[in-house]
Amino acid sequence: MSVLVGLIVMLGMLVIVPLGLGLVGDRSLERIRRLWPLFAVPGALSLWLPRGGAAASLALCYALGTLLLASHAPRRLARTRSARPAEAALLTALVAPAVAALALVAERSGHELFGFGLGILALTVPHFHFAGFAAALVAGLVCRAEDGAAGRFAALSVPFGTLLVLVGYFTGDLTELAGAVVLTAGMWTVALLTWRTVRAEGQGRLTGALLAVSACVLAVTMVLALSWALGEATGLPHPTLTWMASTHGLGNALGFALCALLARRRLQDLTRTKGRTA
């Protein structure tokens, strides 16, 4: 696993997941959020050890945490009994880190899971932290705030596109391309709705700047994702995986996921403050 990919994955494990869980508004997630460092720190350490038993054991500790998180999805579904698009996106976010952890355990142990090479497995880990967890979570939060046709489309297309990309790993490049198209459409919609929020009054300059950066970066990075998927499916010239990691991956991690979640956290705090003073 390259240094850049390792740093991106660490950001996802140690910052993005716990920060995102705090935005769901589900008290049942508070315990796993408080305990998350107990799983994420060993997982982060596994990234910097040579492949083998020690690295795999630490990765397995992280996988345990992601399975505990994923177990909240069916319980939340049974409790809420909601089929709303925002809820579908949030449930996807709860499950996505477990997919990343499965790939991490295999990659750290040096085992080619389902026939996928170690390089692909290494890139699957950040993909399901950011395109899986962060993207689905933000789409769900945007849908909560913008419960119109566009918000519902974003909340449904992001998890559906992510699922298609996952299926495409097994069925071929055309399915993966279809997933990239659906995911890109959903994320562009998220970017558009986020940009509308930038123009709202009373949220503060820093919050507006974070929202603006997340929207603009997302619009660009999804073009890169679509061009890569198109090239893989058709044989047309397209960026290399290394170049994608340093542009699409880094941009999504810092420019989109981190900025979007920090902005949503600030908006949530602002709403609570207004509620207490009302």
List the helices and strands and how they pair.
Elements: H1 3-21, H2 30-46, H3 53-70, H4 72-80, H5 85-109, H6 118-145, H7 149-171, H8 173-198, H9 205-234, H10 241-277
Helix pairs in contact: 1-2, 1-6, 1-10, 2-3, 3-5, 4-5, 5-6, 5-7, 6-7, 6-8, 6-10, 7-8, 8-9, 9-10
What does this structure look like?
47% of the residues are buried. The longest helix is centred in the last third of the chain and has 37 residues, at 241-277. Helix 4 (72-80) packs antiparallel against helix 5. 83% of the residues lie in helices and 0% in strands. By secondary structure, the protein is mainly α. The model has no long low-confidence stretch (mean pLDDT 88). It has one domain (3-277). The protein contains ten helices and no strands. It is globular and about 55 Å long.
Order of helices and strands: HHHHHHHHHH
Determine the strand fraction and express it as a percent band: under 5%
Count of DSSP-assigned helices = 10
How many angstroms does the end-to-end distance come to?
51 Å
Secondary-structure content class: mainly alpha
* Main sheet makeup: none
Q: Uncertain spans, ≥5 residues at pLDDT below 50?
A: none
Specify the overall morphology.
Answer: globular
Radius of gyration: 18 Å
> How many domain regions?
1
If you average the pLDDT, what whole number results? 88
Helix content: over 70%
As an assembly, this protein is: single chain
Count the beta strands: 0
